[in-house]
Description:
The chain has 298 residues and is mainly beta. It is built from one helix and 17 strands. The strands form two sheets. It has a twelve-stranded antiparallel beta barrel. It has a three-stranded antiparallel sheet with strand order 9-13-14, with no helix packed on it.
Amino acid sequence: MKKIFGTLVIFAGLQAWPCDLCNYFIGITPHDYRHTLGLRYRYSVYHSHETVSHHTMVKALHNEETKTTEGFHTYEAWGRFYPTQKIQMDLVLPFKHNCSESSDNIDKISGLGDILLLTHYEIFSLPVSNESSQQKLLLGGGIKLPSGKFQNDDPHLQAGSGSMDLLIDGSYLLRYGQWGISSNLSYSFNQKNSDGFRFSNRINASLAAFHRMKIASTYFLPNAGILFESAGQDRLDNLKLTETGGQTLLGQIGGDLFFREFAIQTFVSVPVFQSKNQPTNRFRISTGLSYSFEPVRF
Length: 298
């Protein structure tokens, strides 16, 4: 029977909600309050080791360590729309390609992932002391639709969770001149699917510092920060799975480049700390291209 890996390992469709969708630079880019369409690619790698005991005719018992490498590719088409200046709506259509490889087995899963719908409301956008400083707060949430295929033989390798899940989150930005900080906090409420499997609820938090630079008509926004993820134990038929759950702290560095209607985003994150009962998260990368159009007139 395959080992069920930690809850934070790969359910990328869930753990990506806050980190990939929050906008670190709300209110300071040339694409604010414009409809945006984009493509994004995300990739993460995990390693795990499992010791298996064998009986042979030569030795009564010997232990063999099996190394498993898991790679998770996500290709996303997404859109952001502003029906009014204070309302921001996001739609994410993911396609998954997941692979788990060990010395004696290879498993691959490909297909449509779980579609994500988000809405945020701008609570306030105010200058702090002068026109070169600003603070902004957005609150909102969304739902994840069970559009991806789920099979219970290896839950964490699937394209979808098989359940409709809820998310609440908030983002806060403080900018002074060309420097600023941004934070995001979210909590997901995950439901049981038709196979009796339930991914644990989880909390995600991020904090980043950024700097805005302009060269001619091009803006560049480098940033660096930390990401924190925490989850309890998954459940199968209401029974807790003991080798799931835990916490992860990651460091992240990246940047956004804006040129006219186009933008390119790239970041890399590596673990600073993670629970011992989890497979080792080697790294995560994300890159994307977007196009903004039809500025909304209010």
